[in-house]
Amino acid sequence: MTHPTDFPRDPARPALPAHLRTALWLAELGLPALPLREGKLPFGNCPACKNSACGDRPHMKGAGPCQCPAPCHAWAAATTDPAVLTSPAWARAWQQAAAVAYHPGGGGFTVVDLDNAAAVAWARQTLPPTKTVATTRGEHWIYLGSMASPNGVRPGVDIKSLMSYARWLGPGTGRMQLLPDVVRALAVKEPATVRPASCAVTVAPLAGGGECRHRSPAYLERGIAMAEQRINEAPDTIHKTVYRTFLAVLSAHGWCGCLTENHIGRLFTAAQEKGESLRHCEVAWTNARAKLGM
User: Fold this and answer.
1) How far apart are CA 68 and CA 64, in angstroms?
2) Which of 60, 114, 215, 220 is deepest in the core (most CB within 10 A)?
3) Whole-prediction pTM
């Protein structure tokens, strides 16, 4: 198969950035692609899309109303449309891109991200052999089929498929196999015993029953759901992620009286299921309130 760096140049148009050529090649293969900035991170939201003001997830059928032309929204901006990839709105991102990523679930694939030698050894003993791509510290094992994308399914092992992105590191070696049940089972959590949250926020209720003044009850629900997802996808720095998430929720919803004990309990439960202790949850919540002067 021809690699994008082997494409002949069209003398009538300037040479495309190398990462953009790779993305166009991936798009031809049916893999939604997007640029990554330094640190393997997606480009941030533009001002119009900040804090989900636009509804999120452009270029993803049925995933939201946002029609932002910029490469916003991380994995949800990934696309196979060459007109989008080469649009002026994406040009600056490609000039600054440090790598290319793709949306595995959008292409019908699942990546088992093995982050260290111990995780690789576990996979070789446990998982069916499949296409393998070497990474900086471990390997990506790629299967045909999509699934949810939980992080931290075991030490050093993340799943990247639906609602996730993986860095493109080359075609890899080996023959790709169908997604096995043993990998799907990694996303199934055993019921956790979680003590109920013992901390509640106290704010003056908003006249009219405490309805969120920003937009609608749906806006609050989306904010809580996104906070739960952010905590669930947290890397090893769980303490910092929980604090920042609590701070963001309180900043957006803590002043209008619409937060209930149920909402707070959902946040605490998500944090505790990720391994955070109840005490650390209470400390993070208290510190976030103090930071905002509540």
Assistant:
1) 11
2) 114
3) 0.61
Query: If we measure between CA atoms, which residue out of 171, 145, 165 comes closest to residue 26?
Result: 171
Name the amino acid, one letter, at 136: T
What are the start-end ranges of the H helices in 63-148? 82-85, 88-96, 117-126
Answer for the pair 74, 58: CB distance below 8 angstroms, yes or no: no
Task: Kindly report, residue by residue over 56-88, the tens digit of the pLDDT.
Answer: 644 444 344 567 888 888 888 899 999 999 999
List the structure tokens of 230.
Answer: 């952010």
Q: What is the dihedral of CA 118, 123, 129, 130, to 10 degrees?
A: -90
Q: Which tokens go with 178? A: 């169908």
Q: Would you say how long the chain is, in residues?
A: 294
Q: Which residue has tokens 């979680």?
A: 194
Q: Tokens for 54?
A: 């636009």
Nearest in space to 276 (alpha carbons), one of 239, 233, 228, 225: 239
Picking from 19, 170, 33, the residue whose alpha carbon sits closest to that of residue 106 is 33
In degrees rounded to 5, what are phi and psi of residue 21?
-60, -40
Non-local CB neighbours of 252 within 8 Å, separated by 6+ positions: 51, 214, 223
pLDDT, tens digit, for every residue of 144-157?
Answer: 999 888 888 899 99
Helix axes 261-273, 217-232, angle to 10 degrees: 20
